[in-house]
Amino acid sequence: MGVLSMAICKTVWVHAPHLTATSDSEPLQLPGLNLPFTLSTAELPETLRTPNHDDRYSKFVSEVGAADNESWGIVVNSFLELEQPHVKSFESFHQNGAKACCLGPLLLYNELEKIPEQYPTAMSIKWLTEQAMPASVIYVSFGTQADVSDAQLDEVVFGLEASGYSFLWVVRSNTWNPPKGLEERIKNKGLIVSDWVDQRRILGHRSTGGFLSHCGWNSVLESLSIGVPILALPMMAEQSLNAKLVVDGFGAGVRIPMESGFEGEHQIIGKKAICQGVRELMGGKKASYVRERTQALGRAGTRAVQEGGSSHETLSRLIDTLHAAQN
């Protein structure tokens, strides 16, 4: 998680009995936080939407939070140029003067090596390289933890197809199969893979122009660090907060319209909303702006991990402090 998402979660957890809102859509007033966007109860993680913390999971979260608040320090995969306005608010929950050490983007500390031909990502890179136009492909991945129903996956692929944009989609499902006739229809426009891929290489390819993401923090930071704008489709945990920050805080992405239906217990975002979101991110009125914002953040992230950068300096101070504590 990033600094602001953690600060929001801690604030809501501590002040939940005193937070008042007449409806789920009314903006919340969170003590001690200066948010760059309005936030309603409906946009909070599910575990924070009710003031009742008596269930077993909530008690576990409470115990973890209490231990975290007593820690010596907190290492965060973020960088000051991205979240500095919220660091002090986050640190205020921790005792003994604990500091948040923003050391990211961690992925930028390592240089990429040449891909072996048998490397799992090689086929995807080859396909991307064959695309004629730079920034013409939208990359799609929902991480490894979200439970995405087959019905939702159908809507995603139909929406991608209808958008008219080329796409590379990494699907992790043991039950979903492409609808009949789909692979033939999209063979010149889309690639669907089920193997693990090197997401950094995919995002960094010249043909990749957008990322349809669940907005897990690691994926968000990878995309921003490389300068690829995000089409946000949050699914669980704090991902809705990350999506708000990306779209309304950073101006580095677009949110998929939340028009939905239900398939059993699963909420379904329809193909029309998926299609609209892809078109807006890749070629709509906001496309140029979000691309410029994301590229600016990517440059800032690169500077942060270079010698003399904010994250590089924070890491050096942390190492010196740990060495001194051992002597």
Automatic annotation (TrEMBL):
A Pfam cross-reference name: UDPGT
MF-aspect GO terms: UDP-glycosyltransferase activity
Family annotation (CDD domains): GT1_Gtf-like
Keywords: Glycosyltransferase, Transferase
InterPro entries in the cross-refs: UDP_glucos_trans, UDP_glycos_trans_CS
Membership in a protein family: Belongs to the UDP-glycosyltransferase family.
Protein's recorded name: Udp-glycosyltransferase 73b4
Lineage: Eukaryota, Viridiplantae, Streptophyta, Embryophyta, Tracheophyta
